[in-house]
Amino acid sequence: MAEKAISCAQKNLLIGQSFSRSYKYVQNIRGIGLKSTKRKSGNVQETPEFIVGSEGVASENKTNRLRTRAAWMYYVEQMTQNDIADVLGVGRVTIVRLLAEARARNEVKITIEGKLAGLTALERMLEQAFGLERAIVAPLSTPETDPIVPIAAATGAYLSEKVQHGMRIGVGWGRTLSGTLQHIGARSLNDLKVISLLGGIAQPRRFNPPEFAWQFAQIFQGEGYLIPAPALVDSQETREALVERCGLKDVFEMADDLDMVLLSIGGIETASSTSYRVGLIDEAQKRSLIENGAVGDMLFHFYDRNGEIVSDPVHERVMSVSMDKLQKAPVRILTSGGPEKVVALLGAMKLLKPTVFITDEISAAEMLKKYQAGN
To answer: Does residue 29 form part of some domain?
Structure first.
């Protein structure tokens, strides 16, 4: 039986290679329009919070955001200038200048009137509630807006700044992560390695783990390392054989020393999990997972609201890197949002313990509400 399972799995060993042969990266991506407003006050014209260039790179107005955060911490939270400088990663002289500019712009009166004050408040509350080094909250034009688009734009802007030479980055998959690609500034980085943390999908799909990892590596002209096997195999014996005897052990071992992980999550109860929507988890398996307490999944690791991996046979067949390895990465980025994922996001905070969290304003507010209520 084991030999038959191995033969079946070996037919899929070229999944990742087929992606690399068929994929053609188009560098000149045209800009995607994001809704922004410009308001005139006298002769001064304010700039939009998100700027979209001809290559589709959306970046926040960093100076405005930094100035507003500094003012919030100083005047509302009553932090010292030295403490603010440490939190924001700049010098004290910069903080002094930012505070002076905030006063000169009349952004500081009794309250902070910067356009990002509301988002800044949510960011700071998320950071304090979940022990984050950085929270980024993307605005929504209406409550009905699909949050994936602004979250992806904010994530792309963040990655454009933080990905550096010589990094080893492990990446997941899903709609949100795929959406970030058009918002990342393309540039050449030396000795950059991108490792897909999950196997692939045999059927052609828009969202596929090897496809995303390969495209992400190409943006920075880095090297992509894929797991050329199905994300879900037919047995534990097949999984062990692929890892130990089919050359996949080296890829899994690369995850032992990651500088950064980039992950998203799916909610299982409302079928927002990409693994369910693409057919890798059927209805019977979904019901079994829910009965065992699962609220979401991260790289096919199904977990409960307390951030514990639930007991289910599906975990024996998953071709993905273990969570204990991902938790060791110094930079752990979780990017996701949507009302149907709030409970799953709260569980993910305990499971991954992210250092950076990127979401939308409605999801952020609902998460804080449930957190404060002890749910």
So the answer is: no
